[in-house]
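During the no-cost extension, the postdoctoral fellow (Dr. R.K.) reprocessed legacy sequence entries with the updated structure-token encoder. One reprocessed record is reproduced below for audit purposes.
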Amino acid sequence: MTVASCPGCVAAGDAAENVGRDPGLPTHELILPGIHCAACIRSVERLLNTRTDIAAARVNLSRKRVSISAEPGMDPSPWIAALAEIGFEAHEARDAGRHAQDDGLTMRLGVAGFAMMNVMLLSVAVWSGATDATRDFFHWIAAAISLPAAVYCAQPFFWSAWSVLRVRRLNMDVPISLAIILACGLSLYETTQSGKHAYFDAALSLTFFLLGGRVLEKRMRQAARSAAADLAALEPLRVTRLDGETRVTVPVDEVAEGDTLWLAAGSRVPVDGVLNSATVQVDRSALTGESDEIVVAQGQALTAGEVVLTGPVTMQTTVAAKGSTLRRLIQIAAQAEGARSRYTSLADRAGAIYAPLVHGLSFAAFVVWSVATGDWYNALKIAIATLIITCPCALGLAVPAVATVATGRLFRMGLLVKSETALERLAEVDTIVLDKTGTLSAAALVPPANMPAEACAVLKALAQASAHPLSRSVLPLLKDVTAAKLEQVAEHRGNGVSGLWQGTEVRFGNAAWAGVGQGTVLRIGGTHYALQRREQVFDDADETLVRLRAMGLEVHMLTGDSAQNASRVAAELGVDHVHAEVDPEAKQDLIEALQVDGRKVVMVGDGLNDTLALTRAWASMAPGNALEASQNAADVVLLGQHLSGIPDAIGIARSARRRILENFGLAACYNAVAIPLALSGFASPLMAALAMSTSSITVTVNALRTRAKS
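Re-encoded structure tokens follow.
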């Protein structure tokens, strides 16, 4: 075993490459500014999923985007045109900045409020007993204010309704628009007939409250920032590329594989690559949650999203911008946020039957009240109230609002949710199975107790310059040591790290490479120090297992290691269920056996030999230092090196499930109360508008509670 390589890494190379990247990841993303309900989701997905050039399409209502899996590089113009034909405006996500301007909701809300208050002032005279010509005069003034205001302020509803009606579809804006038009039309009729009552104030109040609900929902969705948005914010829009000796500023999307980039101190790494300059310090906290600065030596990797703390430096890209690790993480996060569980399908079904049901109820109310009372005017008011009050906004927002908040919170805690149904499945687990080596413990190098202080300083400097986890495992033991200043530091793949210290060659790594026998050594000139290898339990492993047991989970540990080593670690951590000397197939069989017994198992592992078990488990997690094959198989990736993220993820998943169920309960209670009130004639159009907006806002506020608890 050498310091800079291990058999697992070597053996995993081809297999991990064969596992490859997830073919189901979205390749395109479109912005849909006009969607706002479950019926919109259904219409968009039905259209896109029936196209032969699209493998899959998934709408995220909270982010107002659709993620599309298709051939990379395909022109999205045909999809945008097809969406336009069914009434949905669409733009490429990369053009978001051009279409991020205020959509006018705030201005329309202000105009509606101004007109509503003025018309109410005019109505005071009528309510105070004005008659005949005076009353008619005030009604005509109210009409002059109300009709233009309604046409302008209700445009979002009118355009949305017209766009779907012209393709013979329905959405929730159809009955809303019909209610506004009927309220204004009824009031205008009363005015022309010198009637006693006009409802221009009610029509404007209806518009005002509906717009108010839309504005607040928009603000709250923005407050529930998504993990994808946070990741996207880490990528600079423009970079400095070196063309020979000339620095050229170009958009990040123009960066190609093999380009040389110039980065100033404090800059974010835009694309994956390798460092051309000398040793540099980088901050990876935004991606991994690790607060310690990392030393990167010449020739070592830089990952998109990291911050260069010392500079300026140059780097050579190893991928194009669209293939960077950061772009892949953005796609994974966006896919998870757009996920829909069985609860979402319930929302879709409710949205699909909404418009026909509401139109039927409204028409039935009009007919029944007209026949029963002979008062078509009152029957029309009841029909209008029914159209407004039965809105599925709350149901449509129940799942995506919670998913957006939960995945965003987990990301900010250093966990990336990458599976579509991970939150739902994590919330249901009752058993956790943890791999020992690499998850609960790791091989560590221990320097001899009598090693001089100067040698410790050199060892720390060389260990900091290495990317290999075994080399870096000595750092916790040297945390009180000040690293020596070295020159010409270089890492030699498969051997170790070398440099010059005060003119003397120093090496840390494979003893044979250092020329002093076997094992792992530090050589300083002609003096060498042998380091012992031992297994060390991670600092937060014990606390993590205590938290997991407190959450009611049964803890199992499995390993391919010997029973003796497994028992020692299990005794140190207090694990009762230990499975040692198991191969990959046996790990998979153990998971399957637990699940046959009715257990919901979450598997946590980092190696290639854990991949089968990760895919078999009800839910799965992988540490940030796991092989790519394991990370691809896992539902959640711990971006940092802290095991505390495991109970955090399960806790937030359980909180998210509670919020979703509460949201469905709120929506059900609202409809159970509101529909009978509307049909019974106890809800005016104004009351209906206020109730509908309040229900949507309540659901979104409740989703934000997911953020409030760990």
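The domain at 26-99 is CATH 3.30.70.100 (Alpha-Beta Plaits). DSSP finds 25 helices and 26 strands in the chain. The remaining legacy entries will be reprocessed before the final report is submitted.
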